[in-house]
Amino acid sequence: MILALIIGLLWGKGAKWTESTTLPVLAIVMTLSTMGITGGAFSSFRACLAPAIAGIAMSYLLLGTILLGLNALLIHDEALRAGFVIIASVPPAVAVIPFTFFLKGDGPFSLVGTIGAYLGALVIMPLIALGFLGLGLIDPSKLIIIMIELIIAPLIVSRVLTRIGMNARLEPVKGAITNWSFFLITYTIVGLNRELILHQPLSLLPVALIAVASTFVLGWAIEGIGKYFKVSPKTLTSLVLLGTLKNYGLAGGLALALFSKQTSVPATVSTIFMTVYILWLEFRGRRR
Predict the structure, then answer these.
(1) How far apart are CA 185 and CA 18, in angstroms?
(2) Cα gap 11→3, rounded to integer Å
(3) Packing angle, helices 107-133 and 45-56, rounded to 10
(4) How many CA atoms lie within 13 A of 101 on its CB side?
(5) H-helix or E-strand containing 191?
(6) Beta partners for residue 246, in sequence order
(7) Residue 55 half-sphere exposure, CB side, CA atoms within 13 Å?
(8) How far apart are CA 268 and CA 255, in angstroms?
């Protein structure tokens, strides 16, 4: 992410050539990310219900509400406001699942919680987008098509690939493909907005404040409340990740597809702070 940021700022003029690739690349990432979902993950409805509801609550009821509230208070530019509405509407980051295992959290809880949030996104995403942006700013038919391309189709394709045994064959290269895909997406968004980032950095201060509040500050609050109610450390780790990490790659791609390059700025800035936040969680986890 940091490398993509630097290259985007230095040689971002070429990003115009990669702008049209963001949605197809995101579809590939979503397909690869959901291939690890097995049928056993939903073997027991009762066991899955609580994590699925928790995933929706943490990503939308908590994080989404905070993002929308801070957006209304701090952001006055209409393009940036639309960018944060899109971030609030997308499900958790795909990084929640691998980082749960890395930080020794509750893997099955994060998996089902993430899947629950993605299924909930089929209803919640258009409601938030249309409710806060309105029919005048967003085309419902275009939003539905993009949701089919980026959520429904990848889920179906991933099931087909898993059924025919491609999961094991793709496993050695899934990490590399995902990393390079996010590199391309980040480079494109940063490159398209390089003039704003380089020449008007102070205009991004409110965006950065929201990014810090929705990761470091919110994560600290979730952890404190969880400890007060004696939530198990593994489950608490999963809740922190579900409640602080949004799918900024998806948000940036949607912003570019539905609005303008400036609307994708909040997703870019948030991606940077999410990367720093994950590194901080990793450092703190090692010290413990």
Answers:
(1) 8
(2) 12
(3) 50
(4) 7
(5) helix 166-192
(6) 92
(7) 30
(8) 11
pLDDT, tens digit, 9 for 90 and up, residues 218-255:
999 999 999 999 999 999 999 999 999 998 878 888 88
Handedness of CA 110, 115, 117, 118 (dihedral sign): positive
Structure tokens at 57: 């609550």
85: Cβ contacts below 8 Å, ≥ 6 apart? 68, 71, 128, 129, 132, 133
> Is the backbone of residue 165 left (phi > 0), alpha (psi -120 to 50) or beta?
left
Here the tokens at position 231 are 């939530």
Radius of gyration of the chain (CA): 18
Q: Encode 81-103: b = buried (16+ Cβ within 10 Å), e = exposed.
A: bbbbbbbbbbbbbbbbbbbbeeb
Q: What is the pLDDT of residues 105-129, one digit of tens each?
A: 887 888 889 888 988 888 898 899 8
Q: Which residues have a Cβ under 8 Å from the Cβ of 181 and sit 6 or more positions away?
A: 25, 26, 28, 29, 249
Domains of the chain: residue spans and CATH: 2-287 (1.20.1530.20)
Six token digits for residue 140: 């419902």
Quote the pTM value.
0.80
The pair of three-digit structure tokens given for residue 177, joined into one six-digit string: 């493909």
Q: How many CB atoms lie within 10 A of CB 11?
A: 12
**Beta carbons of 244 and 59 less than 8 angstroms apart:** no
Q: How far apart, in whole angstroms, are the C-alpha atoms of residue 265 and residue 79? A: 9
